Amino acid sequence: MKSHRREFLATGMLAVGALTVRAQDKPAADASEVSLRGKIVCLTEELDKRFNVLPDCDKQHHVYSLKTADGKIHPLLPTESAAAVWMDERFRQRELQITARSFPGTNHIEVIKIQSWLNAKLHDLYYYCDICAITAFKPGACECCQEPVEFRETPAGASKIIPQN
Ligand SMILES: [Zn+2]
Ligand SMILES: [Zn+2]
Description:
Elements: H1 2-19, E1 32-42, H2 43-51, E2 64-68, E3 73-75, H3 83-87, H4 90-93, E4 95-102, E5 109-118, E6 121-129, E7 134-136, E8 150-155
Antiparallel strand pairs: 1-2, 1-4, 2-3, 4-5, 5-6, 6-7, 6-8
The protein binds zinc ion (ZN) (2 copies).
C-alpha cells in the first residue's frame, strides 16, 4: 500500500515538473496564499475541552493555532514569522488577521504576516528598532545593533513593513 503510494507520488511529481512549462496550468496540489481572521487558541487545550487529551503544554509546547469564526482551527507552523505568537501574549489576546500559506493535505499554515483588528480597524503588528529603522517578527535584540526591538501596532498601510514573500 505504502510503496504504491510512493510510486504514485513519484509519477505525480514528474507530471508536475512537465507542467511547469505552461505557467497558467498550476498543479492542483500546490500551496496557496490565504487571509484568515480569528483568535489564537492552543489546539491541544481546545481538544482537551472536548476529548480529554491531557495536555502537556508546559513541558512540551503549545500548539498555537488560529481559530476562525466558523470554528475551523489552523495550527501555525513554528516558523520565525509566527514566533511572536509564542513569545508575546498580545498576539494571543487580539483578534487577528493572518496572511499565510496553506498547503494541501494539512490545516497547518505558514504565517506570512500578522495583523490585528483594533476598534474595527486593521493594524500591523511587528517589532521595530528606532536606531536602525528596521522591523522584526519577534521580540528580542535587534539583529543589527542588539538593542531591544519595540512592539508596534499601527494602522495598516501607515508604515512600510516586513513581508519578504
Ligand atoms: Zn497549550
Ligand atoms: Zn537596531
